[in-house]
Amino acid sequence: MNWYLENGKDSDVIVSSRIRFARNIKEFPFKTKMTKEQKEQLLEKVKFVTPTIGYGIKFFYLNDIDDISKMELIEKHIISPEMVLDKDDKKAILINDEENICIMINEEDHLRIQVFTSGLDLSNSLNLAIEIDKKLDEILGFSCNEKYGFLTACPTNVGTGLRASVMVHLPALKITGNLSKVLHIVNNFGMTIRGTYGEDSQSKGDIYQISNIQTLGIDEKEIVLNLENITKKVMEQERLARKYLAKNSIELEDKVYRSYGILSNAKKLTSEECNNLLSDIKLGTDLGIISEIDDKKVKKLMLYTKPANLQKRVGKKLDEMQRDITRTEVIREIVKNDNK
User: Fold this and answer.
1) In angstroms, rounded to a whole number, what is the distance separating the alpha carbons of residues 66 and 18?
2) Long-range CB contact pairs, 65-71, < 8 A, 24+
3) SS in 3 state form for the chain?
4) Distances in Å between the alpha carbon of 263 and those of 18, 84, 207, 276, 305?
5) Consecutive 10-residue runs of the chain (340 residues): their mean pLDDT?
6) Does residue 79 sit in the same domain as residue 181?
7) Are residues 255 and 216 in the same domain?
8) Same structural domain for residues 225 and 156?
9) Which range of residues forms the domain containing residue 63?
């Protein structure tokens, strides 16, 4: 089973963890200064060495991936929206079947090495990412300065080039009105909190992304430890808020069962409506209020109701109205009995 359908450590609050290294190959200029021919050469160089990397990684030109499949990868948080929205066609990805390793080629930097896992598991993800990073450095040779560390296209990534992040589900903090207070504290501790799809995006279904800001003058393990500590504080506050809500159990039960009733009986649902309903339902299953559905099905619902993943599941392209109708059919299929 792929990581995004699994429940990891502390998955009642922590949806997933990601480690990302920004790296550039020293024989090429930064992407913004590269010619079309140099971009092609870089792609061919990486493609040529792919069999020696291991981990079951395969090379795919982005142009060879259809639009729905690209959006599917964005919805899974495996590639960035910028990777697709930027019209530069000299791009590719390295990805394994489990999709827990994905390397974006010619995004902002030459390489963006990413490792994903369900729940809170930054340390193990970091160890795997470092292992892959060292192997690629030996094969390709990364740009590195003795004083500043790894050189990157954006100065904010110079040093370790590491962006560690966690996706967190914070419905109780929102309901109790304490969310902005907690987010302010996160920012004060040198972390940034963003929407579901990172920079300049909005939260969907009460899911936020917390990540480190500092990459220079600090090592990878310290960055991850700091993020883990902050994440645990946020998790603690969310769980306290849930306990507070549970004191008035009838109100909370009514809220989550209303959402479950609409989700399982509606004939048409937009993606936004579905995200909001699923946030309530996930809260209900995590607190043991809803017994009609388990957390594994909630994971499937959160994935397969997204526009591109919905279309991939049913195997056809749908317009917006068709998606809204089909979404409810897929929901009932998963809720009642799902073996896909």
Assistant:
1) 25
2) 65/93, 68/308, 68/311, 68/312, 68/317, 69/308, 69/312, 70/308, 71/307, 71/308
3) CCHHHCCCECCCCEEEEEEEEEECECCCCCHHHCCHHHHHHHHHHHHHHHHHHCCCCEEEEHHHCCHHHHHHHHHCCCCCHHHHHCCCCCCEEEECCCCCEEEEECCCCCEEEEEEEEECCHHHHHHHHHHHHHHHHHHHCECEECCCEECCCCHHHCECCEEEEEEEECHHHHHCCCHHHHHHHHHHCCEEEEECCECCCCCECCEEEEEECCCCCCCHHHHHHHHHHHHHHHHHHHHHHHHHHHHCHHHHHHHHHHHHHHHHHCCCCCHHHHHHHHHHHHHHHHCCCCCCCCHHHHHHHHHHCCHHHHHHHHCCCCCHHHHHHHHHHHHHHHHHCCCC
4) 30, 31, 19, 10, 11
5) 92 97 97 95 97 96 96 96 88 97 97 98 97 97 94 94 96 93 86 70 85 92 96 96 92 96 97 96 95 93 97 97 98 81
6) yes
7) no
8) yes
9) 3-240
- pLDDT, residue 318, reads 97
- Count of CB atoms within 10 A of residue 7's CB? 15
Cβ-based neighbour number of residue 58 at 10 Å: 12
Of the three residues 240, 271, 290, the one that is the final residue of a domain is 240
